[in-house]
Fold:
Amino acid sequence: MKHLGQKEYRLAIKACHATVAAIWPVRCPSGRHRPAASLKPATQPHTMNRFHVFVTASVLLLTSAAAHAGIYARAGLLYQDPKDLQIVRTGDYRAAINKSLGGTVAVGYKLTVLRLEGEFNYFNSGIGSANNSSVATSGSMKRSSLFVNGLFELPILPMIRPYAGVGIGASQLDLTFNQRANAGSQEVSFSSGKTSAHLGYQFMAGVRMSLLKTATAYVGYRYYAEDSLQYTAANQYTIKTGTGMGLWEIGIGFGF
Structure:
């Protein structure tokens, strides 16, 4: 086997350098290719490392979320703290609407981290005492609502997913109101019947937790608001409903 001379060796080294530079260009800070003797696998910049970590984490999160995509249904309880009724007459006063439990059901579709659902909820709240000691009030206020909600769910952990969303829809009230003066004057009774639908909207946030393969539990809070309604009772009383309230909720859901 013929040994290379010094000239041929240098030419072979230069050829190797040219080949490496063509398929793996490594530059010095000055912009020139590094000498062959100093060629080493270059350390990637910190920005590239961070980018790769971000891409990998995003893929893992989306893959985990996609595993839970599909149709779902949920049902739960709502605890409301509504605004008082405002009774307008000579000597205005307010009648309390009692805190109460309501129910909610929804059906929707989840795609990765987004959920779109249709929701129905119902309340039947009693009317309590007034802030005027000269009158006694009673009655009930029933509310039924239909909403379309859009929610964003963040799969931070495999079994725990915070969520936030907004909804818009329509509500219908059925108000029965009774007032009697403690002095024994004639009682005033009023029943609105079911009102026409009026605009409502809500903001929601909470946490969803995986229980079984297709079952989840959730707990959350929402702020619900609607147009204020005004009624005239016995041609002498004007009754105004509140415009907003906070609700706590807890429930369970199932995927299909």
